[in-house]
Amino acid sequence: MSARHSHSRLLLPLLLAAAASAALLAQDEAPSPQPPPPETEAPAVSAQPPPAEPEIDPFVFPGFEDTGAPPAGREGLASGAGDLFDTSAFDTYSQLVDEGLHVAAPGGVSLSPETKVITATGGVEINYQDLKLYAERAEIDLESRDIFLHERVRIYRGDLVFHGDTAAYNLDSKRITASSLKSSLDPLLYETTGFSTTIPELTGLNTLSGSESVFTTHDSSDPNYRIQASSMRIDPKSERVEMRDVTFFAGDTPVFWLPYLSQYLDDELGWYVRPGTRSNWGASLLGQYGFLLGEHSLLKTQLDLRWRRGAAGGLELLSQRHRENPNYGRFKAYYAYDLDPDIAVSSRFRRPLNEDRYRLNLQHRIYLPGPDASDLYLDFDINKLSDEFLYEDFFPAEYQIDPRPDNLVNLVHHRPWGTASLLGRFRWNDFFRTDSREPELALDFTRQPILRSGIFYEGQTSAGIYRERLTQQETAFVEDGEGSFEDLYGVDPNDLDSTLVDQFLDDLAMHAGGYSFKRFDSAHQFIYPKTLGGWLSLMPRAGVRYTRYFDIDSGDPSAPASDDRALFHAGASGSFKISRVFSNVRVPAWGIDQLRHVAQPYFDYSFVEADELDPGVPRIDRLLPTTLARPLNPVRFTAIDDLASWNILRLGIRNSLQTRRDGQTYQWLTLNTFFDTFLEDPEFDRDFSNLYNEIEWKPLPWVRLAMDSQVPIFGQDEDFVEFNSRLRFMPTHNLEFSVGHRFLSNHPLIGDSDLVSVRAYARLGETWGLGFLHRYELEDNTLEVQQYSLHRDLTSWTAAIGAVIRDHRGKDEYGLLLTLTLKDFPQLSLPLSIDQESSAVEP
Description:
There is one protein chain. This protein is mainly β. It is built from eight helices and 41 strands.
């Protein structure tokens, strides 16, 4: 708006107001003047009865909403006609209107040209850009550009809400100050005096500060707990709260006091103290403090005290750029001076260990410059440990997931045709059995069409230098007789096939000094998918593979220095579907709305003709003991060194029962049944495999059953039986239990097992809960795990107490478990835990 136009808009209402006042003085009985027509763009003029002493009535300014309510007071109005035409106040106000100021005041608005203060009353609403201010009375100082709010103050900015009795907001500095104010910053609710903060236009809140502050997460007028501080400072950008002179209250009772507390709202930041007890630690106190380094790095420092093991500490550095994938952007360093390293959790054989125990871990990905930043990157997975028992002793959760961490560096380049990689894998921990690749270059070609022929190609080629050595324990076992087979491999050799065990021990003794070789491998396959007759899907395939070994150093004088193997393979897979709809089948109790049965018979035939390698050629990529069926596609067969001739036909049928749910097809029950016919068996002298069945039943959200099984039906020497079952059932809202069962018998390479797991949790009313977990091995009558827990809901907190006993067959582990967790703020948990990484009772 131009200055000239602005003045014309302001002078016109002044003239109309003066004319109206003169008419009222001259004619007491004259009717009230009407507001000007809309096209004049002039605001309405108030026409209330004059006071005892003639005075100019207030009027509504441009930018104010005229509610028609009586004006709020006339004390601040100018009394002289000369002051009325001092337009500097109106010019300032007009500028605010252009900036987006809008005021709605049902009680009326008045302006004092002397003080240049606008007063609005009666449930005032002020909008300024993306800020909304509410109060019973407001004053706008046109010179200082301050807005003063009184009574029932509310300030809104996006998700930010402030409540109080009085507050002031400056339009230039964007700063809010208040004598007393209530607000929230998820998950915190807080009340403070002496409050101040700034609200930038685009970046949300700046730092908040206040005095005599109270914090809680219990959204109640009478919270069951609160934290009271003489001063506080909140930084919303880093989500950090700093408090001084801090008192913790349970209800109205003070519990403890701290001179200073700095806590992040992120669950990985700030203080995290975990008191606990564990049979191989004794009483323990594990402390962690996390803080941000710059904008993209999080540093967590640790200080741990264990009564039987001594003091330990470390740090963990995490890149916030990789938060979506925790496998990258992570560095860990940890050191413990172990007072008694001979204390063991399990009965595994332990050589004497040094008191100095440590770990160094780096998992990171670096994207390298290129046309597409995600096409070329370098992966690091580096892990250095002081000994093989470090994870078991100090990091039990990590030990269960990855007991033998690897060491590798991998350069990867993705292209539309596939992936090229240069892998360096090295052995940095001599107590783990790990092969080295120094390095290995690999090209993987994805399946892609050849022109428009309908034929597809896929393949892979690799070349590298490979090396493997026995572990320190295996070397001591072979050369000095230390330990036993069961100590090293966790299984009693009497439970295995004696011929295979003897062969394994002979190979172990032969390669006690380690072995190495170079290898070139190239596999290629062509596929021609077709649909015959509109119902039969057929996918014939054929290919070749060539592998050459050279510079072989196996420690066996009779082994060749080089060897090679050529392989030809052919095969085909096919399937078809038949279905039938049962439209009258409806069982609401089991979630069935019509039913469709789909049957899909299928076959997979694979023929491989391969040269035999000399028995002295060492194996690195070899077959591992498993109960699973082997893959029949040689290109995707990762055990390259154990490839051999085979002739196998796999026959099977997939059955599924489908129903309608939420307008979509829902898999109510699926069953996959298959077996292999061995015309030539590459592993044993079998004619048929077991019969495999894979069942999954999901009738309702609170019922799920899965069962994988294989049973011998043809009576052969290598037959074994396996059942893996899992049932989750929640019959009521207050009861949930799950049962798991694993049964394995007569496998030639894996020991027998008959393991049952039962887990249950029951709600006892609205606030109490009871849980337990049992894991029992029936094969040797061992109750491996017992865990019992009692839970209590404390509104904003959850408390649990329990006990755990683990039987490691020769070593018993036990502990007490107590957790106190703030629901909305879990990083303030106070757990008494058995596992370092576990802070909750397992229901």
